[in-house]
Each structure stands twice: as C-alpha cells, then as structure tokens.
Amino acid sequence: MKLTVQNLRKQVSGQVVLQDISFTWAPGEIIGLVGQNGAGKTTLMRTLVNQYRPDGGALLLDGESLDAHPARRESLIYIDPTQTFFGRYTLAALVAFYAEAYPAFDRRRFASMAADHGLKLGQRYRELSKGYQALVVMLLTLASNAPLMLLDEPFDGLDLFVREAIVGLVISEVAEGRRGFLIASHNLIELDGLADRILFLRRNTISHDYQLEDLRAKAVKLQLVFTQDGIPSVVRELGQVLSVRGRVVEVLFRDYTPAVQAQIEALAPVLMAPLPLDLTDIFRSEFSRMEGER
Asked: Between 176 and 24, where is the model more confident?
C-alpha cells in the first residue's frame, strides 16, 4: 500500500495555506511533519482525510483516486484533538462511533489499552484531564487498525510514563510493517527518536523531505574557534551557522566531504570538535535558511 500526494492545494478564508504539496507514504514508515506555528500542519492532515476539501491536486492510494474510490478512505485515520462533539459522550460511545467508520476497529483492544491506563468505558470524555483526553485520541487511533495513522501533537499533555507507553505502541505497530504514522509535533526531541523521515512544511509547501539516516550519514555539526575576528567566509559558504558565542561557532555542514574537511582544516582553527547532531539542529538550520532567503 502506498499513499501518493500530488500537487495538493488548499485555501482557507481566501488565504493560500497549502500549495503544491507532494510526497509518498507507506505502512512501515514514521514520518515527522515539522513546521513553524501556522505553517499548515493541521490543515494538511484535515485535507488528507477530507475534513477539508482540497482546491487542487490528487490523493492516490495504490494509484487509485480517493475521490473516485471514497471507501478506501478508511485506510487513513485522523482524529482531530480539538473535536468538540466528544465532550458529552462516554468512551464507550466514542468507540461505537469509530467502530461504525472503521470496520477493522478492535473494541477489545481499545478496552484493554484503556484499562491498562486506568480508564473506564463509562467515563465521559469531558471529565478527563487534558493528558487523558490526548491518550483517548491515541487509543482510538491505534484501535482503528487503519494502515495509515495521522497524529497531531499526540504527546501534548501526556506525562512521562504514559508518553513512553504510547511511543512503545507506535514503534510496535510500525515494526510489523502494517501501520504507518504521520506525526505533527513541536517536540523535536520526541520525533528525533521516532521518525524515519522528516517533512519540512514552510511557505505553504514541503520544502524538504529528509531521510534522517541518510542525512546523518552526510551531515556533521562542528564546534569551531578561530583566532581571527568574525567567521571565515568559506565557513559560511560551506555550512550553516547555528550559533555564535564569542569566538565559539557551531556550524552544520549538510554534505561533509573530505574536501570540505580539508578546507576547514586549512583555516587552522584553534578548536575543531564534532558535536551530536539532532533534529533541533536541522530545524534551526532549515528555518534560518528560510529567513536568509527573504
């Protein structure tokens, strides 16, 4: 199974929110969706599941249009965490709603996972804390057994132990290759340990689609100190400056080849030390480049 998104476009209240969005996604992948506040992450998820009608482009599942074959939409699930109709219903009622929409919904599994976290089917959604409401959304999503699951800030409000349990469930679902996750999150540290790929959403489109393993194989973050004032121009040309503290400079080199290393060493830095590279560095680099292009 493969979802193909082709040149997706969406306007909201006359404003372009999504433009020429294109990517593919299959079970067995965890994709992180990253962007600044207001970049359109939630709009993209709502458009993928037809909560919002796209203004252009195509959504194909194994080459078949989801418009032409609407029944195939049950392969995708997105539960909006801001759902207002949940409030007055019990968890049992919510299970009944989603079991109607998703034929493979596993009621027993939901009940078992809920009991593991002290939740009872007779509890009303509005009576739960924010963290437990987020947990219910996650459990409904997992119990749906939809092959492609979209999660919007899924760890927001969860305590450490519940979050770790949920992360374990996500990893377990993906390990068998039957489920895939698209996760929008501001928690880059959480995504860094989960995602195989990262989609950067900026200026209304997907600016980069990174395979994290490939990126880390090529990229290096260095801490550099030079005797002269300022940052040598070759450093700015070859890398992306992440921070400057006095003479100490942290630079991300996306394609750190032996030739690049030789050019940096030729500058005779007082200090040239590799540092761990994480998703936060890539995010900072991506959006500092965006500012520089304006």
From this structure: 24
